[in-house]
Amino acid sequence: MTTLPIALSCGEPAGIGPELAVLAWSELKETLPFFLIGDPAHLPPGTPITEIATPKDAVLASADTLPILVHRFAAPATPGVPAPENAKGVIDVIARGVELVTSGAASALCTNPIHKKALKDGAEFAYPGHTEYLAALTGVDRVVMMLAGPDLKVVPVTIHIALLEVPKALTAELLTETLKITHAGLIRDFGIDAPRIAVAGLNPHAGEGGTMGTEDSDLIAPVLETLRAQGMRIIGPLPADTMFHARARSSYDVAVCMYHDQALIPIKTLDFDRGVNVTLGLPFVRTSPDHGTAFDIAGKGIAKPDSLIEALKLADKMAKTRE
After folding, report:
1. In the predicted model, what is the mean pLDDT of the chain?
2. How far apart, in whole angstroms, are the C-alpha atoms of residue 105 and residue 108?
3. Per its Swiss-Prot or TrEMBL entry, what cofactor is needed (predicted)?
4. Selecting from 3.40.1170.60, 3.40.30.10, 3.30.465.10, 3.40.718.10, what CATH number does the domain 151-270 have?
5. Helix or strand (DSSP H, E) at 267
6. Residues within the annotated binding site for a divalent metal cation?
7. Cα–Cα distance list, 163 to 154, 166, 323 (Å)
8. Which of 11, 58, 159, 213 could form a disulfide with 203 if both were Cys (CB 3.0 to 4.6 A apart)?
9. Binding site residues, as ranges?
10. Regions of the chain with pLDDT less than 50
């Protein structure tokens, strides 16, 4: 456990974030202190809370109550129905969390899920998602999304674009920067001195000698060869369909994949509830549960806090590694 608490942003108040925060606190309490940034009125009725003045107050308060750094919103929260008036509050809470962690008041930032359409509709949010907004707030040109689970870590090189667009977006520069940021993140945030990186090919059978596409031999392989010559432990490009069984997973620390589903299908198949979204390349530790706002089950008392709990635990572990 770090000496400072973790900041947890409230996310979309009409989603499952408020109830997950309470469930996570009930599980962790004094073993892993964190504080919620948000509006107490959005929490489930009867939640025991302490309104704190500074993050350090959360360490003592969390043993008996959920510490909350109050950020008032414009409207109440109705489960499943986002209010446009609250969009600015959601955005401002994220910025407030970044300010706290970059100033050293909190050890890490964990973010509850946001609903990007609600933010665009209510506040003209100009970013594709959390990750890009966090990068903009900290002046970082490029960051990397990692999904981390108990048995697998994956990094998609391209993320939320149509499959048709992947070959166009996949460049030597993008692949090189993704691999370097991933390599540095495994050392700095996970304490792996000499990371082993497995890289998936773009095409079936990694192109099979050019008979199923030439991107693997013409683009991916030269990048890997260059980075190997610089001392990085990289294998690939590998056929993606043979990379994720247990024996294969034991041979590497992270799998770098060429597109979204190539990376996310295996990790969600292995452990759907405990995956954690990690942003590598930021000047602070940031994690998030690997799920959305789940409007369809918000307020019904059936949401599972497993991913948020794992995200808080991993944030704590990464912060300790950085220390």
Report:
1. 95
2. 9
3. Zn(2+); Mg(2+); Co(2+)
4. 3.40.718.10
5. helix 260-270
6. 160, 205, 260
7. 18, 5, 39
8. 213
9. 130-131, 160, 205, 260, 268, 277, 286
10. 1
Question: What's the pLDDT tens digit per position in 31-65?
Answer: 999 999 999 999 999 999 999 999 999 999 999 99
pTM for the whole structure = 0.94
List where CATH 3.40.718.10 sits in the chain.
1-140+282-323, 151-270
Query: Looking at this protein, which amino acid is placed at residue 279?
Result: T
Q: Which residues pair with 196 in a beta bridge?
A: 233
Distances (CA, A) of 66 to 1, 2, 37, 70: 18, 18, 11, 12
Please spell the DSSP secondary structure of 197-250, one letter per residue. Answer: EEEE-SSGGGGTTTBTBSHIIIIIHHHHHHHHHTT-EEEEEE-GGGSSSHHHHT
Joined together, the tokens standing for residue 261 give 């589903």
